[in-house]
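Journal club prep — side note

Before the paper discussion, L.F. wants everyone to see what a predicted structure for a comparable chain looks like in token form. Sequence:
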Amino acid sequence: MKRTLAARERERLADAFPSLTLDTSQVPVRVTGTMWLDPELGFSIDLEVPGNYPRGIPKLWCRRAEVPWEIDRHVYPNGLACLCVSSEYRKYWPPGSDLTDFLSMLVRPFLVGQAYYQDHGRWPPGRERSHGVEGIIEAYQDFLAPLGAVTPRVIESFVRLLARPKDPKGHEPCPCGSGKKLRDCHRAFLMALRRAIDPDTAKEDWALLGRERELRHSRP
């Protein structure tokens, strides 16, 4: 991380989370310390900053003694936190955001949910995504909410175009299923989604949705 960028990150971090430190002495760079949710409740922070930051997405590693490494707690068996569905990262952390924003918009809500789970044995109402393909579908249902209720076919049609490296042409059919050409229907909406969702992420989602589709068709 360049010195000028590190200086800006440290300044904002010190104002928002004075108990956290940006450590640039190691590779990868990390944010460490304790995030306090209230004066008596805090969680250890080990945020790994990728070498291609700010394009790359930081990773939060959980301490097993504080947060169980269990899928129901949205933590992988190696301790890596699943903060949201991959396609949603830029929804909460759009380009131009910094590490303080990441901690505020993604890490803190995740830890608040963990604290709630410890007390109630479940996630806060409306705060949990399903696992796997179901979670991906739920995320895209939210993305496509302006269209109203959408079918799995419409979701797959949008994901297919979002996964393409080049922008779709205006004469192509709109993925909403209206039968209209894209330029006469939801082109602006689709292009806004393409700015929010990385094509590589959409490509991974498209592959997972395709495997699920094949499984559905193979069932008797």
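L.F.'s comment for the group: The helical segments are 3-16, 89-92, 99-120, 132-143, 152-162, 187-196, 199-218. Keep this in mind when we get to the figures.
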